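Observation: inputs received (chain + adenosine-5'-triphosphate).
Thought: call the complex predictor directly.
Action: predict_structure
Action Input:
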Amino acid sequence: MRNGEMTGRAPDFELIWNSLPNPVLMIDGQGAIVEVNGAAENFLSASQRQLAGQPLAGLAGEDSRLADLAGQVLRQNVKMAEYGVELSWPELPVRLVDLQAAPMAEGGGAVVMIHPRAIVETMDRSLSHRSAARSVTAMAQMLAHEIKNPLAGISGAAQLLQMNASDEDRELTGLIREEAERIGALVGRVEAFGEIGPGRFQPVNIHDVLDRACRSAKAGFASHLRFVQEYDPSLPPTLGDADQLMQVMLNLLKNAAEATPKVGGIITVQSAYRAGMKVATPGGRRESLPLQIVIADNGGGIPEDLQGHIFEPFVTSKSAGSGLGLALVSKIVSDHGGVISCDSQPGATRFRLLLPVASDETMPAADAEDAA
Ligand SMILES: Nc1ncnc2c1ncn2[C@@H]1O[C@H](COP(=O)(O)OP(=O)(O)OP(=O)(O)O)[C@@H](O)[C@H]1O
Ligand SMILES: [Mg+2]
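Observation:
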C-alpha cells in the first residue's frame, strides 16, 4: 500500500478494513464468505464469526442479485457493478443498495462492496405515497362539492346560450361545454379515487387476478403486445380484494402498454415466492411479504425527472393522462399491507409488487385502521 511506503510505517490493514464506512465482504472462489468488515457486520446484523464460511447464495437467497453478481465476478474474473438493487437478507428489511464486486488478484475469490442508499429512498418509494393518497382522498371530497355543482351551472348556461347564438359563437359555447365535460370527467376520476373503500378481504389467488388482467389487456389496450407470463405454481394466496388487485394489475399493464412500441413491445408478468422477504413499516414493524409480482416492459422507460415521483397523484408525462393510475395502485397496495417499487431505464421498466400471504398474521392496513 502506497501510504505505508510514504510514511515508512507498515499499514494496519485490519484498522483500515474496519474503518471503511461501507460494508465489504470477501468471498472465496466457491462463493463462501471469508471475511466481512465492521460496516458489513453492522449492515447485515451478524458477526464475522456467524458469517465466515457461509455460502453467500445460501444466505442472501438463490435469486439474490448480490449472490448473482458475486457469482458472475468469480466466473468471469472481471469487475462488475449493479445500481439500485433491492437487497434482501434473512430477518432484515429490503434495502436499496448499489453493489460493486471485483475479483481478487490472488486466491481466486472476490470482494463485494455494498453502498447502501438512504433507507428513506427505499421506503419512501412506496410508504410516503400512503399520505399522498390520503390527501387525494380528502381533495376528492372537496372537488366533488366545490367543482361539480358550479361546473354543471357553467355547462347548463353554455347550453342555453347555444340556442340563440350565431354560428361563430356556437363554436365557443361548444368549446365551453366540451371543456366543462373534460373537467367533469377528471373530477369523476378523482372522486372515484376517494371512493375506493377498505375492500372485501379474502384469500385471493394472484394468478387468477393476473390472468384476468392479462386477458382483458390483450383484448383491449395491449392487443399489439406480446405477453410473457412466468408463474411460480406453488404461490400461496394473498389476503385481499380481488377487484382492487385487478385494478392494480390493469393500471400497471396499461402504463406498460402505453410505454411500449407498436411493434416489438413485450410485457413480462412474473410471480415468485420469496421466503424471508421482510419490509420495515413506519412504526418499526417488520412485515413478511413473500409474494412477489413483477410487471416489466421493454418500452422507453420512465422520464428521468419523474422517477421518484410517479406514485404521487397528478404526476404524468402524458397529454391525456391524469397521473392517478399509479397513485391508486400505491394506495391499494398499501391498503393490502404490501409494497410497490419500480426501477426503470430505457428498454427496461420493472414494477415489483410485494404482498403478504393469506395465512400470515399481517393484517391489511385498512382493517387495522378500522379497528383503531
Ligand atoms: N411502464 C412505464 N413505462 C414508462 N413510464 C411509465 C410507466 N409507468 C408509469 N410511467 C410514467 O409514470 C407516469 C405516471 O403514471 P400514472 O399511471 O400514475 O399516470 P398516467 O398513466 O400518466 O395517467 P392515467 O393512469 O391517469 O391515465 C406516467 O405518465 C409515465 O410517465
Ligand atoms: Mg397510467
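Thought: report the result.
Final Answer: Residues 251, 255-256, 259, 297, 299, 301-303, 306, 310, 315-318, 321-327, 349 surround adenosine-5'-triphosphate (ligand 1) (CB under 6 Å). The mean pLDDT is 83.
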